[in-house]
From TrEMBL:
<feature type="signal peptide">
    <location>
        <begin position="1"/>
        <end position="17"/>
    </location>
</feature>
<keyword id="KW-0732">Signal</keyword>
<protein>
    <recommendedName>
        <fullName>DUF2884 family protein</fullName>
    </recommendedName>
</protein>
């Protein structure tokens, strides 16, 4: 009887081993093929592994990517973030303003956009909970949650400033944070180093 039990147990182990070694196939979503590749030279965008979209639809208008800016802000001496911001503008507005006021006006526009973006980013950082998430399953999930929160806070902070800018300049723009470029600081804010480098 012991022999038959041993044979039965051996067969059960063989069956279990066979189940454990079967390959599990996972359905992978089809990845879209990009028709057009754009080369972005900004270092923070390259390190993110993604390129930003070259166009954006806003109020049924197609806006083109015209500028990539870096920014950083500290919430306190320990927490902060830095990353890239994408400036989109209506090409027809750009051409119209160039012919009416000359191309030199765009230097002033650039300064205004930089200022409103910096102020909006500081407001967004202040509104974002940058504390470590004890419920995050890992560093990637924590980064993703922070990026989503900061993205939404920035969009809320910059909306009114963009409207005022458009009314003053007649240039249709949008400023969008590029989430994959975000770098968060939770144990010593280094975002001020970025600002000092830009000043030099």
């Amino acid at each position: 009887m012991k022999a038959s039990i041993q044979i039965l147990i051996s067969m059960a182990f063989v069956a279990l081993a066979a189940c454990a070694t079967q390959e599990v196939k996972q359905d992978k979503p089809d990845t879209p093929i990009k028709d057009e590749l754009s080369i972005i030279t900004d270092e923070s965008l390259q390190s993110s592994g993604q390129n930003p979209p070259m166009t954006l639809i806003k109020d049924n208008q197609t806006l083109n990517l015209v500028r990539i800016m870096d920014g950083g802000a500290c919430k306190n001496e320990f927490q902060g973030a830095k990353g890239a911001f994408l400036v989109y503008a209506d090409q027809a507005d750009i051409e119209r303003i160039k012919s009416e006021k000359g191309p030199q006006i765009f230097a002033d526009f650039e300064n205004k956009i930089q200022t409103l973006s910096t102020e909006a980013f500081q407001e967004a950082i202040d509104a974002t909970n940058l504390a470590e998430d004890p419920f995050a399953l890992g560093a990637d999930e924590a980064q993703e949650k922070l990026a989503k929160q900061l993205f939404n806070n920035f969009r809320n902070s910059v909306a009114d400033a963009v409207k005022v800018f458009q009314q003053e300049t007649t240039l249709t723009i949008d400023v969008v944070p590029f989430s994959p470029s975000f770098m968060f600081y939770q144990q010593g804010c280094e975002a001020t180093h970025l600002e000092q480098e830009q000043e030099n």
